[in-house]
Amino acid sequence: MKRRVLIVDDIEFNIEFQMKIIDTITKSRDVDIHVDTANSIADSLEYIDSNEYDAMIIDMNLPDGSGLEIAKKSREKNKSTKIAALTIYPSEYSEEREYFDMFLKKPIMMDSYRQNFVELLDI
C-alpha cells in the first residue's frame, strides 16, 4: 500500500518530529508513505499543483498566512484528499470545518499523533 502525504509547518523541529512518528508507522504497518514537506503557503501550493495527495497535515499559523488557504486550494483540486489542521487553538477554526477532516492539537503528542495519522490515512 503506497500513500502520499504533504506536511506543512514552518518549524523544522515539528516536521522532523512528525517524520519520525510516520517512520515508525511505516515500519509497524508495512505501508509505503511518501512525505513531501513545505514551510510556507507558497511552497505548499506548488506541491499541490504538481502532485496528488492522500492526506495533508497543515499548520494553521504560517509566516505567509493561514493554512486555511492551503486547505481550500487542496479541496478545489481533489475533494478526496484527507486534511488535518494542526493548531494550538482548534476551536478558532470551527467555522472552516468543511475544509478539514480532522483537527490536531499542538503541542504534538506522539501517541495521539500516531493514532490520528493512522485514522487520517485509514491504514
Question: What secondary-structure arrangement, pairings included, does this model have?
Answer:
Elements: E1 2-8, H1 12-29, E2 32-38, H2 41-50, E3 55-59, E4 61-62, E5 65-66, H3 68-77, E6 82-87, E7 102-105, H4 110-121
Parallel strand pairs: 1-2, 1-3, 3-6, 6-7
Antiparallel strand pairs: 4-5
Helix pairs in contact: 1-4, 2-3
What's a quick, concise take on this entry?
With 123 residues, this protein is α/β, with parallel strands linked by helices.
Please write the CATH class name: Alpha Beta
Task: Classify the secondary structure makeup into a structural class.
Answer: alpha/beta
How would you write the strand order of the largest sheet? 2-1-3-6-7
What proportion strand? 25-35%
Radius of gyration: 13 Å
CATH topology: Rossmann fold
The sequence of SSEs as H and E is: EHEHEEEHEEH
Instruction: Provide the domain count.
Output: 1
Please tell me what the overall shape is: globular
Termini gap: 9 Å
Helix content: 40-55%
Overall average pLDDT: 94
Largest sheet: 5 strands, parallel
Gross CATH architecture: 3-Layer(aba) Sandwich
How would you characterize this protein structure?
The protein contains 4 helices and 7 strands, in the order βαβαβββαββα. The model has no long low-confidence stretch (mean pLDDT 94). The strands form 2 sheets. It has a 5-stranded parallel β-sheet with strand order 2-1-3-6-7, sandwiched between helices. The chain has helices at residues 12-29, 41-50, 68-77, 110-121; strands at 2-8, 32-38, 55-59, 61-62, 65-66, 82-87, 102-105. Helices cover 41% and strands 27% of the residues. α1 (12-29) packs across α4 (110-121) and α2 runs parallel beside α3. The protein has one domain (2-121): Rossmann fold (3-Layer(aba) Sandwich), CATH 3.40.50. By secondary structure, the chain is an alpha/beta fold.
